[in-house]
Amino acid sequence: MDFSFAMLGIAAVGLLIGIAVGCVGIGGVLMIPILTLVLGIDVKHAIAAALLSYLPSGFVAVALYGRRGSVPWREARLLCLAALPAAYLGARAASFAPEPLLEALIGLLLLGGGVYALRGARRPAADSRPLAAPLLLGLGGGTGFVSALTGAGGAFVLLPILLLLDVPVLSAIGLGQAIAIPIAGLASLANIASGLVDPILSAVLALSLVLGIAIGTPIAHALPQPRLRRLLGGVVVLSGIAMLARVAARLL
């Protein structure tokens, strides 16, 4: 593939996924399949570049959501604090875990959280209570461990659980953006040490993701909350179905 054409395709992928991330918090899970299956990039280099690109785009997403009051900073600090050591342990355990089982569990979690979001919250967002510190630490640790273990993004794992706990949808997206930063950072250090990071690929992805997130974030905040919740629920359900289909294809 011609180099300039490949970079244009990569930039287009990053832009579209960035818009999805800005709107509903989930989209990065599609990055690796598109880079590998559509653009023909080696899977290890695709994963390493995607993870590194999530760092600048993650900071931008958190800044944009935080400026609009959509990042509960107390919850974000506790989640990220617990995610760091857990992500390290998950990365170390990655070679021992049965990947199909883990992906199936994530798929079921996505389906449950997505269906719940489509049905609507049990109580209005204004009545939502802050999550207790032990629960947040447990969620951060579990998300960090599972994300590093499976290669899934932090938001991909955390968002369905937050929806089940009736966290307001914009706050849930903001927290999903925040927890992705320490997870991606820890994994990127290991990838850089292993020589897997392509700086040009990472830079193109990062710039296009940042632009896409800058476009998608105002869209999310302009939508009525019930509609945004339904949109997020639909994306989560489709992601869960895709994950389970992938597991079934491997087993057949």
Question: Can you give keywords for this protein?
Answer:
single chain, 252 residues, mainly alpha, 10 helices
Describe the structure.
This protein has one domain. It is 80% helix and 0% strand. It contains ten helices and no strands.
Give a short synopsis of this structure.
Helices cover 80% and strands 0% of the residues. With 252 residues, the chain is an all-alpha fold. It has one domain.
List the helices and strands and how they pair.
Layout: H1 3-24, H2 31-38, H3 43-67, H4 73-93, H5 99-119, H6 133-150, H7 154-164, H8 169-193, H9 199-222, H10 225-251
Helix pairs in contact: 1-9, 2-3, 3-8, 3-9, 4-6, 4-8, 5-7, 5-10, 6-7, 7-8
Amount of beta strand: under 5%
Supply the number of structural domains: 1
Gyration radius from CA atoms, angstroms: 17 Å
Described by strand count, sense and barrel closure, the largest sheet is:
none
**Sequence of secondary-structure elements:** HHHHHHHHHH
Distance between the terminal alpha carbons, to the nearest Å?
A: 32 Å
Our count of helices gives 10
Shape category: globular
Unreliable segments of 5+ consecutive residues: none
Instruction: Kindly name the structural category.
Output: mainly alpha
Mean pLDDT score: 82
Find the count of extended strands (DSSP E, 2+ residues): 0
Helix percentage: over 70%
